[in-house]
Design brief:
about 90 residues; single chain; 3 strands; Multidrug-efflux Transporter Regulator, Chain: A, Domain 2
Length: about 90
C-alpha cells in the first residue's frame, strides 16, 4: 500500500485570523474571509461592510471585517445597524 500525503488531501487553504487593527486590501479581504469579490461589494452597497479608499486603492480595516462577519452571523439587518449606531 502506498502512503497518503496529508498535505495533498487538504484542498482548503488554512485561514488566517483577522487582526482588528490591520489594513486589508480587497484581495486580502477575499482571501482571509473566504467570500467572493461580489459578496464584499454587495455588503458595502447594503451598508453592512465599510469599505475605504485612498486614491484607487480599496481597503478594509480588520475591525470592520470582524464587525461585518459578526452581524452576518447574528442576522442583523440594515435597520438593526441603524438603531445600534444611534
Amino acid at each position: 500500500m502506498s502512503e497518503i500525503d496529508v498535505n495533498v488531501i487538504s484542498a482548503r487553504p488554512v485561514k488566517q485570523p483577522i487582526i482588528e487593527n490591520a489594513v486589508y486590501e480587497r484581495e486580502e479581504a477575499i482571501a482571509i474571509t473566504g467570500f467572493s469579490l461580489s459578496t464584499l461589494i454587495q455588503a458595502e452597497k447594503s451598508g453592512g461592510l465599510k469599505g475605504r479608499h485612498k486614491g484607487r486603492r480599496r481597503y478594509y480595516l480588520g475591525s470592520d471585517l470582524l464587525k461585518w462577519l459578526q452581524e452576518e452571523h447574528y442576522g442583523l439587518t440594515k435597520i438593526d445597524r441603524r438603531l445600534r449606531s444611534r
